[in-house]
Amino acid sequence: MTVPAVEFKGVSKYFGEVRANSDISFSVLPGTIHAIVGENGAGKSTAMKILFGMYRADSGDILVHGKPVSFRSPIEAMTSRIGMVHQHFMLAEPFSALDNILLQQKGSAFSLLPRKEQKKRLTEIAEHYGFVLDLEANVEDLSVGEQQRVEILKILSQDSEILILDEPTAVLTPQEVQDLFRNLRHLRDEGKTILIITHKLKEVMSLTDSVTVFRAGRVVGQKKTAETSADDLAEMMVGRRLQKAQERETKVDPNQVLLRFDNVSAKMGNHAIHEIQLHVHSKEIVGIAGVEGNGQDLIIRSLLDATSLDRNSLTGQVSHEGTLGAFPEDRLRLGVLPARPVYENFILGQHKSPLFSRGLFLKGKEVISKTQEIMNTYDIRPHNPLLSFEKLSGGNQQKLVVARALSQKPQVVIAAQPTRGVDIGAIEFIHNQLRTARDEGAGVLLISSELDELMALSDRIVVIYKGRLVAEFTRSQFDEVALGKAMGCGK
Ligand SMILES: Nc1ncnc2c1ncn2[C@@H]1O[C@H](COP(=O)(O)OP(=O)(O)OP(=O)(O)O)[C@@H](O)[C@H]1O
Ligand SMILES: [Mg+2]
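Above: the input record for the complex with magnesium ion. Below: its predicted structure, written as tokens.
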């Protein structure tokens, strides 16, 4: 019998009262790709962080190639040739890709080589796996896909043979996902073992050899991928069948425009938008499809943050009726205070509302009870308004940001990548919230890199390519191939 590369045996981990992992057992054979799936907060990242030496288990054993291990730090894990790419990358932004990789190598044989040799070696690894990457570029100038390649190159240069990837595709474009998967298959075929956390069951089905399902801190099943299906996995994850939303053909009142972009052009560095003409009506969800980096960001900035655009570059008219609710794409950079409690983050931006303040003073009780109510409605777990934001799991953070925007019942909703990193149950929930906002009269502008999401939600989809709107589809014309083509080449 083959000895598993990684085996968890009854591993448990508490954070105070929260039982993040409870008697976790599963195993992964060497030279395979293994998925870890489960709802937000199910304990996936925690389990992987224990394996990687970031947390200590309270009880249970982890075996690597049959030998019990208990790493006290990631450095010890790396010495045992285990590498991890985190859910939120941990690169130091003002430094080059090369420096970021070298920073982590202190004390290794690799670190003693002259810089020229190090660069040569890294370039060789990159070329071997077909990574396209400029090692001298500053990390802050790299796309997320490129930053991720830096992270993967970093662990490959440490000679890792067990690779852990925590939601690697959440922030990638479809093309980048294809490239990543090609690289991962290549790594597997060379004998490496890969553990990958993902919410995308299509990816589990197309990439992996086996899968473990977590629910509420426990393992509810381990399967060979070939012997299960996306529907079965979804049901194991949430404990019920998910409903397919019914589609509808909408009739909107052409006179009820809530959001207008009239002939809008703008620039920011190398990026530009040209003559954007787009109206969003009451009771309508308009989707913007496009490969990331084609100007979506500038459309949002022209509405929400015009001062961040190049001076005097904004021309045309942008306007909206009524209140505006937006959820930013990058929740960790915009709009949250990670170290502050959930309730403070919840009222951020509305702390002066008479609902929550009396003169200069916050109505503490009201704020906390309102936050509690929202956490219950949106099932943001754990249901504790006093917990600091950063202690919520990734998907629960996203749910809070969405809840904050929608709970104020805005007339215009700007939803940028609204379900990035959230689990399928929560996707269903957020989608229903957006549909409800629309049905109650709001106009919704949805920016998403997921075609499935755009087609499920939008009443109309426009395609952006190189800063121009190049195509428009009404619901009856939605077609994955035609949309994909317009996104890829503007036709
Ligand atoms: N450092 C911490 N302190 C306190 N609680 C934590 C900490 N890290 C995680 N938790 C809690 O442990 C539970 C499991 O979190 P974990 O991050 O492992 O979930 P996850 O399955 O990775 O979710 P997601 O899909 O949202 O990333 C959650 O309830 C979370 O709030
Ligand atoms: Mg996680």
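Notes for the reader.
The CA atoms of residues 124 and 130 lie 10 Å apart.
The pocket of adenosine-5'-triphosphate (ligand 1) is lined by residues 15, 18, 20, 38, 40-46, 87, 381-382, 391-396, 423 (CB under 6 Å).
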